[in-house]
Each structure stands twice: as structure tokens, then as C-alpha cells.
Design a protein that fits this description.
- It is a single chain.
- This protein folds into two domains: 39 residues; 342 residues, TolB, C-terminal domain (Neuraminidase).
- It is 10% helix and 37% strand.
- It contains two helices and 26 strands.
- A four-stranded antiparallel beta sheet has the order 1-26-25-24, with no helix packed on it.
- Strand 9 and strand 10 form a beta hairpin.
- It starts with a helix and ends in a 16-residue tail after the last strand.
Length: 396
């Protein structure tokens, strides 16, 4: 019995020693992997819960569908202010049944501190206001470009920054035609390449293409579909288990020029970003949350560093913002989650970056707001948190 006991003790000690050595080795591997992960950096943000400041005149925003920024870091927000976007019969909006509230004008201009600078927009003489407000962009001359995704919105409008009508591009009320050179198909978003003076339309909800016009004249220049193919109008289905479609699934929701002469296109329905040269030559593509059947790539903005190292992707289906490495289109991190508290999202729709690297988002559906996220510098990936709405330090 003693010998057996001693052998058992000896075997147990040996097993414990081996187990300890394996644990040490495993921990070393894990620490090495963590250290390697920590070497990769990505931007980090905290929400500013006080942006924007309260609106005057008891105004509130409806479905906040677009945002753009000018050279002064002024933010231009477009929202849907139609009666159907508010619970007017229950809350007494504009009916005198209660003290608050009334729909704000559709175009709101804020400074970087969140103060309202100007407000305008809506139907007027000489132009057809969009049936459903959507994209917005600011040209180098300060003019405001507006798209729409209503059934008759086959045109784009241009106004001065004070709301004076300048030009209508395209003919309102035209049918869907992805090969048209005179009209558009419910433009989702507009982006302007200041170097070439060209405007890129994510065209969009009806058509299935990117269209390009001259900024100075509005003259039509060129268009293309997915992979640079000739676009078609027929509905295309996305199946995560099948090869990616050769046509845009749509809506084609953004078309953003980068500093190095590439065009990044959001094919929202296929959870992908396709990259092109300005002539429509396909370069590469990447997917974001590819199992999302409601579409994940709603809008993008580039980081403000000279190389635009990162892409921020507004994901309105999963209610968050993804951070991608621009060169590889690899998803590095994300922030936000579903919810109504500051820093969370309901229908993350549009996104822009200011000159200090801060990020601004809008929310559609019942989100009905804009938010500002303060740039905290580059941090190791292990430091990034998801769903953490409040900042670590006191904000103004």
C-alpha cells in the first residue's frame, strides 16, 4: 500500500507539474497574441452628450437623414419634417394642443459647438422640393446640394448656404432608368471632389449606379455599376451563402472620393464597400458584417489624417459605427450599440468627420437626432469598448 501511495503521489506531482508548465506556455502564447494585438492602433471616441444645443422656437427634428460639413466645421443637417414623421395628432404638433413642439425647417446649420446658426428649406418657386429628403453635401463655394429618395425624386437641388435656389439637376418625376444621362433615380447621397470639381451621386434607391456631374454646370459626365459593369434596373438579391452579385444590390448609399483619387461606394444591400478609380474602373471590395440581411454599409467618412488611414462606416441595421483600415478594408473596431442614450444608436444613417477628427452621426427612423463623438486619439485595439455611451472624463 505504501508503494502504491508513493507512486500515486509521484504521479500526481508529475501531472501537476506538467499541467503547470502547459498553463505557463499557454499564458505566454496568449500574452504574446495580446501584445501583438495591442500593437495595432485604431481611433477611439467618446460621445459629447451636450451636442447639439437645444433648438429655438420649440423646434424638434424628424428622421435625421443626412449630414455634411464645410470648411468652417459647420454641420448641415437635413431631416424629414413632413407631418407623417411626427405624432402630430397625439402630441398636438402645430395644432395648438400643447406647448411643444413643432417641426424644425428641413435644413439646419450648426457650428462645431452645436449652436444653431441658420435654418431654411422646403417647397418654393422655381424648383421641386424632394418628396422625401435624403442626401446633403457642401461644395467648395458654400453651395448646398440636396438629394431625395421619394418616388418622384429623379433630380438634385443646389442652393446657396442661406437657402437661395441656384440650380435643379435632372428632371423631377422621371421613371427609373439606370442608363439615363438626363435624370437620376432617387439619389441617396452626394459627395464632391474639390480637386476635379466633380460631384458623385450615389444613385441610389431607384437606379443602381454611381453617376458623376460637373459641379459648375451640373452637366452629366459618366456613370457605372458594380465592378464597373453597365448597370441594370432589375432587382438583385443578396444571399450571404452565394457569390457576391455582379450588380449593385442597392440602395447605392454613398460614393465618397478619397484624397488619393479613389471612389468608395456603399452597396448597402450587399454589406459591401467597392472601390473604384474615378473613371469607374474597379479596384477592390470588402464586406462589413456580411450576414446582415438588412444592409450594413449605410454611409462612410474618412479619418482626418493626411493618409485617411481609417474609414468610419455608419451601420443603420446593426446600430453602430465600424472602424475600418482603409487600405485593407479590414474591420478593426466599432463603437455604439442599439439604444436611445447618448452614444447609442437607432438607425445610424449618415456620418462625417471634422478637421479635429471628431465624428458626427445622424439617425433615421425613430432615432431622429444628430450626435457628436470626440476623437480621443489612437488607442490599442484592446482598449476599444463597444456600447459604452458615456465619456471617461467630464465634457463641456
Amino acid at each position: 500500500m505504501r508503494i502504491i501511495k508513493r507512486k500515486g503521489i509521484l504521479f500526481s506531482a508529475l501531472a501537476i507539474s506538467l499541467f503547470t508548465l502547459l498553463n505557463i506556455a499557454q499564458n505566454a502564447v496568449q500574452k504574446s497574441a495580446t501584445a501583438g494585438n495591442n500593437d495595432r492602433l485604431a481611433p477611439q471616441f467618446v460621445v459629447d452628450p451636450y451636442w447639439p444645443q437645444p433648438l429655438p422656437n420649440k423646434w424638434i427634428m424628424g428622421r435625421t437623414i443626412g449630414i455634411a460639413i464645410d470648411e468652417r466645421d459647420h454641420l448641415f443637417v437635413v431631416h424629414r419634417d413632413q407631418d407623417s414623421m411626427f405624432m402630430s395628432q397625439e402630441l398636438g404638433l402645430d395644432l395648438g394642443r400643447a406647448e411643444c413642439c413643432t417641426a424644425a425647417p428641413p435644413i439646419l446649420e450648426f457650428d462645431s459647438a452645436g449652436n444653431l446658426i441658420n435654418a431654411w428649406g422646403g417647397p418654393g418657386d422655381g424648383y421641386t422640393w424632394p418628396e422625401s429628403n435624403h442626401g446633403i453635401e457642401i461644395a467648395a463655394d458654400g453651395n448646398v446640394w440636396i438629394g431625395g429618395n421619394g418616388s418622384g425624386d429623379s433630380h438634385v437641388l443646389v442652393f446657396t448656404r442661406d437657402g437661395q435656389f441656384v440650380r435643379e439637376i435632372g428632371i423631377p418625376g422621371e421613371p427609373i432608368d439606370s442608363l439615363s444621362t438626363t435624370s437620376f433615380g432617387r439619389v441617396a447621397e452626394i459627395a464632391i471632389d474639390h480637386a476635379t470639381n466633380e460631384a458623385y451621386f450615389a444613385d441610389g434607391y431607384g437606379n443602381k449606379r454611381v453617376a458623376v456631374v460637373d459641379v459648375a454646370t451640373g452637366a452629366f459626365k459618366r456613370f457605372w455599376g458594380a465592378y464597373g459593369n453597365e448597370p441594370i434596373d432589375e432587382r438583385v438579391i443578396y444571399d450571404p451563402n452565394e457569390p457576391l452579385p455582379q450588380q449593385f444590390v442597392g440602395p447605392v448609399h454613398c460614393a465618397e472620393p478619397s484624397n488619393d483619387g479613389l471612389i468608395y461606394v456603399c452597396d448597402r444591400g450587399a454589406d459591401r464597400i467597392q472601390v473604384f478609380r474615378p473613371d469607374g474602373t474597379f479596384v477592390k471590395e470588402g464586406q462589413v458584417a456580411p450576414l446582415t440581411l438588412a444592409g450594413s454599409t449605410w454611409d462612410i467618412s474618412f479619418s482626418h489624417d493626411e493618409d485617411q488611414e481609417f474609414i468610419y462606416v455608419a451601420d443603420g441595421a446593426n446600430f453602430k459605427v465600424h472602424i475600418l483600415e482603409r487600405d485593407s478594408l479590414e474591420v478593426l473596431a466599432e463603437f455604439g450599440d442599439g439604444g436611445r442614450q447618448p452614444g447609442l444608436f437607432f438607425g445610424t444613417h449618415s456620418i462625417v468627420t471634422d478637421s479635429e477628427g471628431n465624428v458626427y452621426t445622424t439617425e433615421t427612423y425613430e432615432g431622429k437626432r444628430a450626435q457628436k463623438f470626440l476623437f480621443q486619439g489612437l488607442k490599442p485595439l484592446s482598449d476599444h469598448r463597444t456600447g459604452a455611451p458615456w465619456p471617461d472624463s467630464e465634457l463641456h
